[in-house]
Specification:
This protein folds into two domains: 113 residues, Rieske [2Fe-2S] iron-sulphur domain (Rieske Iron-sulfur Protein, 3-layer Sandwich), CATH 2.102.10; 213 residues, Alpha-Beta Complex (Naphthalene 1,2-dioxygenase Alpha Subunit, Chain A, domain 1), CATH 3.90.380.10. 21% of the residues lie in helices and 31% in strands. The structure holds FE2/S2 (inorganic) cluster and fe (ii) ion.
Length: 359
């Protein structure tokens, strides 16, 4: 499957790897192992030993290297084989791939394309709220047996909330004035919904001032390439600004990373600026997220994937509804980016000197 390779994908949470961990994860259909070198730097190398293809993450962390758990070859953070216990001192000329790995905004980001283009400033500061210690955070991970774009679709078309999450995130009344506005700013696609003067959805009621029966509800989504979505959502008190007079809102990062063509990593981080440092609210939010994503979204999306099979959704000519506008725009933009990247690679292969001269 074709992926956008020259882009930063979420690879994990920084606290998933400590000095002892070897974290194996398949990303864009490539086996990757992440670990920390002795100076604490997070690094990523190929997770397939070139000898008999054992996963390196089943081995041992030895200094700044990984010792294969099968027959003991050792590979450093530069991917090179640095020790062969069987060769009488002979070092085979072999290595595993290396991948740029950045730790920024409380997220581990991996670059699966041309390492020379892996510029950390391309990681948008729009995700800085994930590491804002003035906010409360609840984060998690789900493995989903579905293509990552079905997950992006899910976020960019929140009309599903009226049906799949009725009772927790949506009310009957919301159906009557559900009119998201889609707009594009450069490489970012926005889908924004304002629903003034409605009853608050059940999720928000415990956090609002007692007796609040009408709110100005808002729910926005913004897609950042390749497959990450920021979701600010909440209830403003009638006619007030966000957070004023007891209004409550949250901001979430939904980071979707292809594992294979039909399976994905789903990293989510929900942050809020109310009831910070309140473990009961953390537990309440954690329970809701587990139910909404794990028990409502995930089963539906995995069931979709089973019916779609190996095909590309758009090749099956799905019915397009007005509420699909943002999701279709995202798919179109990403498809264009992948095509441009592949054309660029062709130019590089055919005319390497021209390509570098024009870069
Ligand atoms: S499979 Fe890794 S050393 Fe043999
Ligand atoms: Fe959902």
């Amino acid at each position: 499957m074709a992926y956008l390779r020259n882009a930063w994908y979420a690879a994990g949470w920084p606290d998933e790897i400590d000095e002892d961990t070897l974290l194996g994860r398949r990303i864009l259909d490539e086996p990757v192992v992440m670990y920390r070198t002795s100076d604490g730097k997070a690094v990523a190398i190929g997770d397939r030993c070139p000898h008999r293809f054992a996963p390196l993450h089943l081995g041992r962390h030895v200094g700044d290297a990984i010792q294969c758990g099968y027959h003991g070859l050792e590979f450093g953070a530069d991917g090179k084989c640095r020790l062969n216990p069987h060769g009488g001192g002979h070092l085979p000329n072999t290595s595993v791939p290396t991948y740029p790995l950045a730790e920024k905004h409380g997220i581990l980001w991996i670059w699966m394309g041309d390492a020379k283009q892996a510029d950390e400033t391309l990681i948008s500061d729009a995700f800085s709220f994930v590491a804002d210690n003035k906010r409360a955070h609840v984060k998690g991970y789900l493995h989903v047996k579905a293509n990552y774009m079905l997950l992006v679709d899910n976020l960019m078309d929140l009309s599903h909330g009226l049906y799949l999450h009725r009772g927790s995130l949506a009310t009957q009344e919301m159906q009557e004035n559900f009119e998201p506005v889609t707009r594009v700013d450069g490489d970012i696609v926005y889908s924004e919904r304002e629903q003034p003067n409605i009853a608050p959805p059940a999720l928000w009621v415990p956090s609002l001032p007692p007796g609040t029966d009408r709110v100005d509800y808002f729910s926005h989504n913004e897609w950042h390439k390749p497959s990450n979505v920021i979701h600010p959502v909440g209830c403003r008190m009638l006619g007030k600004a966000e957070g004023e007079d007891g209004g409550v809102s949250s901001r979430s990062a939904h980071l979707f990373t292809p594992e294979t063509a039909t399976t994905s990593h789903y990293f989510y981080s929900n942050s809020r600026n109310y009831k910070v440092g309140n473990p009961d609210t953390d537990a309440h939010v954690r329970g809701i997220l587990a139910r909404v994503f794990g028990s409502e979204d995930r089963p539906m999306i995995e069931a979709q994937q089973l019916l779609i099979g190996e095909a590309d959704l758009m090749a099956l000519r799905p019915l397009i509804l007005p509420s699909d506008k943002a999701a279709v725009l995202v798919r179109r933009k990403l498809t264009q980016m992948i095509a441009q990247e592949e054309q660029g690679e062709e130019v590089m292969v055919r005319h390497p000197s021209n390509a570098s001269a024009s870069a």
